[in-house]
Amino acid sequence: MNSKTESTDVAIVGAGFTGLSAALELKRAGIDFLVLEARGRVGGRVEGARNGLGELIDSGGQFLCEDMPELMALARARGKTFVKTFVDGDFITHPPMSVDQAGQTYVTAMAIRDRMNWTEPDDPAIAGLTVASWLERQTDPVDAKAAFRSMIEGLWCLALEKVPLWYLIDNDRRITNEVPELQYSLRETMQSLAADLAGDLGDRLRLNEPVIRV
């Protein structure tokens, strides 16, 4: 946005669910706004991609649960189809490994996450560390570290090199779900929900518009 040629009452930085929801509230209130998103898509931590069959699938944060009532209500209001997560059946991994090996890899990956969260987010010793640089220092098996990386990058839609360690720890500590957060996914994809919200904003949403100064 060029401030010399355009002005608005409110500028919203980022078109994730928070930014999109805030924009819709302002629209309902009749307040002028602009949403400025650095990337070429909306959704923030949710993302969609085409698989080999051309189907749109979630490639970022995709799960929701009953302990997320606002998100559940939003998905219902937009006519999305809830798909309950399967917890029974064969254990399938990529790359292929035995059930025992896969189970141990998962347990070890979660142990890495627990160990990370033992650190205080304001500990001076982790100032400036990314999750990637911290992970490199750990002595866990390669498969477990790869599983941890896949888990975090899938949740955040960002490479670990771009995620500050203190921020991930702080975020994890604010999760208060009492039911598994992997309870449901959306058949139409979580990305489609973000796209629906964006579609209501018209030209008040600007993609590829990074904010470089506030």
Main sheet attributes: strand count, strand direction, barrel closure: 3 strands, parallel
How much helix is in the residues? 25-40%
Spell the H/E element sequence: EHEEEHEHHHHEHE
Separation of the first and last Cα atoms: 12 Å
Q: How many strands?
A: 7
Shape assignment? globular
Poorly predicted ranges: none
- Approximately how much beta-strand content do the residues carry? 5-15%
Pairing-aware structural class of the strands and helices? alpha/beta
- How many DSSP helices? 7
Average pLDDT taken over every residue: 92
How much is the radius of gyration in Å?
19 Å
Q: Describe the strand arrangement of the main beta sheet, using strand numbers.
A: 1-2-7
Characterize the structure shown.
The chain is of the alpha/beta class and 214 residues long. 38% of the residues lie in helices and 10% in strands. The protein has helices spanning 17-29, 69-77, 99-117, 131-136, 142-156, 165-173, 190-199; strands spanning 10-13, 33-36, 48-50, 56-58, 82-84, 184-186, 205-206. The strands form three sheets. It has a three-stranded parallel sheet with strand order 1-2-7, with helices on one face. A two-stranded antiparallel ribbon has the order 3-4. The mean pLDDT is 92.
Question: Which characteristics define this entry?
Answer:
single chain, 214 residues, alpha/beta, three-stranded parallel β-sheet, two-stranded antiparallel ribbon, 38% helix, globular
